[in-house]
């Protein structure tokens, strides 16, 4: 986690996907609130939402998906449960983020031979990115600007979106994506700054 934060210069080191009761529609309570993640030891697995209780988190919610698209997205992700974690993929990502690694020159060439991108393995952000792209939902696509064919429509440019290399996605991308709504529960539940119980030794100003 520390390495990913350093490489990406971000607060976020991990990403999970909320799948609710997809594994057991008859479940209730805690068992119906489930996250899917790629763990470095256990691989792709389902964990209870409560496992992240008390941790610093960000909720990123996609906008405009239809129920059938949500079902397809979740099904895609669930189908990968059991896959191993692709640690070599993280090394590939490190080489992308740090093209000039802080190691002696004689060691750099062997480093280029590392990495796998093995389709039977996964890392957290790339798996979630694949799930969203399976239903054609954008995260941080590459954009090509196409000028208009009609000279009278000089201001009417068209943007064509292209899916990025799925192996280059990082946890922070869901936070900075313009296509996800950032949800802050304390605010959505009716935050009132005038009702905070400040400590007497907390001076104003």
Question: Any overview of this molecule?
Answer:
The protein has 205 residues and is an alpha+beta fold. Helix content is 28%, strand content 18%. The chain contains 7 helices and 9 strands, in the order αββββαβααβαββαβα. It has helices at residues 2-8, 67-78, 87-97, 105-112, 124-133, 172-176, 185-188, and strands at 17-18, 34-39, 43-48, 59-62, 84-85, 121-122, 142-146, 158-162, 180-183. The strands form 4 sheets. It has a 3-stranded antiparallel β-sheet. It has a two-stranded antiparallel ribbon with strand order 4-9. Helix 2 (67-78) runs antiparallel to helix 5 (124-133). The chain is globular and about 65 Å long. The two termini are 36 Å apart. Residues 108-116 have low confidence and may be disordered.
What would a concise description of this structure say?
The chain has helices spanning 2-8, 67-78, 87-97, 105-112, 124-133, 172-176, 185-188, and strands at residues 17-18, 34-39, 43-48, 59-62, 84-85, 121-122, 142-146, 158-162, 180-183.
Layout of strands and helices, then pairs:
Layout: H1 2-8, E1 17-18, E2 34-39, E3 43-48, E4 59-62, H2 67-78, E5 84-85, H3 87-97, H4 105-112, E6 121-122, H5 124-133, E7 142-146, E8 158-162, H6 172-176, E9 180-183, H7 185-188
Parallel strand pairs: 5-6
Antiparallel strand pairs: 1-2, 2-3, 4-9, 7-8
